[in-house]
Specification:
By secondary structure, this protein is mainly α. 85% of the residues lie in helices and 0% in strands.
Length: 273
């Protein structure tokens, strides 16, 4: 019993001793893992719908996924054995899915990757609470926006990008894809509003921690997201004889995800400063 108590005390002391830089680095690695898996999912769906070019990008992103999992494993002391063990389980599931992905039905593959990404985001949220649950008000809010809002926005965009580019590659939207795409549109709109509201509030309360002109950047970003959503609604959903360039549509979605990651990085920088 005494040994167990001592072990728990050591874990508490270790967690409290983790530097701000290490905490941010851990969440950044989770973010990199999620983004690489999103690209893998989209590229796989593209490939399975006839875009041979997409296969090369998939293998590149799989390498990044492997590197991210290894980086998380090397940082296991930051969050402790429980969360580290859960990420290890996800890694094993990822390896199994990657072996089968090119033999699966396109939508089955897409949903399988989406399930893993959802687990990653949930686990990233657990890590955020572990790292910043005892932090000050700003640390709690900024880290929550990073992992539980911005990463949710990137996931909605990633699904809209991935499924949409596959539809474009095939040249028509199948009936079963319509409901998914409409759901992703709603998801993107909802999460975009949350991120913009949260970033606006944080920058007003802690104006010394965020760059000047953030309000204009948020407004410009909102317009870009709305334009992308409109493209999906008017040119892809329920359409036949689609003339949208699959690779260009994928790139446009990637650029928007990159824009969301810029807001993520503003928060991570503020947490380190």
């Amino acid at each position: 019993m005494k040994k167990i108590v001592m072990l728990l005390l050591m874990l508490v002391v270790t967690a409290s001793a983790v530097s701000d830089a290490k905490k941010v680095r851990y969440l950044d690695t989770v973010k990199d893992l999620i983004v690489a898996t999103q690209k893998t999912r989209g590229g796989t769906y593209n490939f399975l719908n006839g875009s041979e070019f997409a296969q090369f990008g998939v293998f590149d992103q799989r390498s990044k996924i492997k590197a991210s999992f290894k980086a998380l494993n090397r940082q296991f002391k930051v969050v402790g054995p429980k969360i580290d063990g859960e990420f290890d389980k996800l890694y094993k599931q990822m390896k199994s899915l990657n072996k089968l992905a090119f033999q699966l039905d396109p939508l089955t593959s897409f949903k399988a990757y989406s399930s893993l990404i959802n687990k990653m985001i949930i686990l990233g949220g657990k890590a955020q609470v572990e790292l910043y649950g005892d932090g000050n008000k700003f640390e709690k809010r900024a880290s929550d926006v990073m992992m539980n809002q911005i990463m949710r926005l990137t996931e909605g965009l990633g699904k809209l990008r991935g499924l949409g580019s596959g539809i474009a590659a095939r040249g028509e939207c199948e009936d079963e894809e319509v409901e998914y795409m409409e759901g992703y549109v709603d998801e993107v709109n909802k999460n975009m509003q949350k991120v913009i509201a949260s970033m606006s509030a944080l920058s007003k309360e802690y104006d010394d921690k965020y760059p000047a002109g953030l309000s204009k950047k948020l407004s410009k970003y909102k317009k870009g997201v709305l334009s992308y959503v409109k493209l999906a609604e008017t040119k892809l959903i329920e359409k036949d004889n689609i003339q949208v360039d699959s690779n260009q549509y994928f790139k446009q979605g990637t650029d928007l995800i990159g824009g969301a990651i810029k807001f993520y990085k503003m928060n991570s920088k503020a947490l380190k400063d």
